[in-house]
Write the structure tokens for this entry.
Amino acid sequence: QQPALYRSEDGGTNWAAVQIPASCALDGTFAADTATEGKIYYGTCSGFYVSIDAGGTWTLSINGVQPNYSYPSYFALAPSDPTHIYAAFQSPGITSSQLYSSADGAATWTYLGVDNPSQFAINPKNADEIFVSGYPLGLFLFDSLLLKTTNGGGTWQEAGQPPPGAGGGSLLVLLPTSPSTLVAQGGTRLWRTVDE
């Protein structure tokens, strides 16, 4: 079944289907730019798309992304600056992935030098500070690592290892009221650190 996106203009009382770009069997993910009315980002296995008219029309926006990494499996907007976006782009067959960022609302993308990210968390108050968990030395071949950057991916440092079981797909989040508090899912447990 073709994935569908719906829009409500009356607080959820009524819904209307929105035309979305050609997709595939995998459901896409989307996010709204809270600072720009009508701007929506949509990631699917056919690429990363942007709409500036609430889903009326869409533009493919993968400038700067390597051709063999076109599927944005996961992306997030920086809470302090919604035009700053981080995304994990996967290769066909999902054999590897790369971390990219855009500082201009997806007009251009920059590879951040991190491979095989599984999750990332953006500082709610600083768009240039993010934590990334993943397998930068090889997809699931080594222990998962936790990396940190404070300059938008210009440089990285190891922030330790995620808690036991916090591998691919696990939750990773920074608390909005306390950006130094990192919460990670490890197996069936939630873990928390309060040291920066």
About this structure: The longest strand covers residues 81-90. The chain is about 0% helix and 45% strand. The chain has a mean pLDDT of 81. The CA atoms of residues 154 and 190 lie 30 Å apart.
